[in-house]
Design a protein that fits this description.
Layout lengths: L3 H16 L7 H9 L18 H4 L2 H9 L1 H6 L3 H10 L10 H14 L25 H12 L31 H19 L3 H6 L7 H17 L7 H24 L1
Helix pairs in contact: 2-7, 4-7, 8-11, 9-11
Length: 264
Amino acid sequence: MRERPGYFRLLLILVISFSAPAWADSGRELFEKECSGCHTIGGGDSGGPDLKGITAKRPAEWLERIIVEPDKLTADKDPIHLALVKQYGGEMPNLGISRKDAKKIIAYLQDVSPVPSSSGAAPAAEPAPKYVETVITPELVAQGRALFTGGIPLANGGAPCAGCHGFGYAGVPGGNLAVDLSARTEAAGEQGFRGMLKSLNFPIMRRMYADKPLTEEEITALVAFSKDAVARKTVPAGPYYPVTGVVIFAALIAGLTLYKRRIR
């Protein structure tokens, strides 16, 4: 009977040993966590290009570089990367992904969208449709601002952007649960931001807006609001709290001074 604890320890070690590889993120998990906010696989362009068949169009070494060090591709003036930046309105951010994880992502893309083997040559990519920029009007900007802050409810019942995001360029403080969208929309450009709003493919947003997508009209208004804010880069007015604090502090000092005088 005394040998049983040793048996169970050995069994536990074997289970842990065989299951250890599963602890590391798979290519699919890495893609969903790091890439799916801007990219789809067969779902069309979003904040970035649709990655269906990408392993047939680009060498693995290039794919690894754009995942690991897109900023260096910009510095090196890589023509493919610069063309993508121009097409989608902003460069891909450096997310700090390791080369090991980048290889996992590429392997996953290869698995879900393999290279065609019939002719050995990748099919020519279809030309991207010409993008028509949103014409900004005061009415559209006002509508977008109201949608962002919750002044106008979203048609499908989704939460307003300002519940989690601020937009400093427009003087909108918003919540602090997520990043301020000022610099993010400026970097992504109109087409990139529109793609993000269409897909809402970030982990938390996927759950929040799963059955509450934005309408095309709402997306256009939010894009107009963001473009106008980025163009103006309005410096938001300082918060009232510091001023109020100074006033209260001054009042306390004055009250203390009067109190001391009365005691004397």
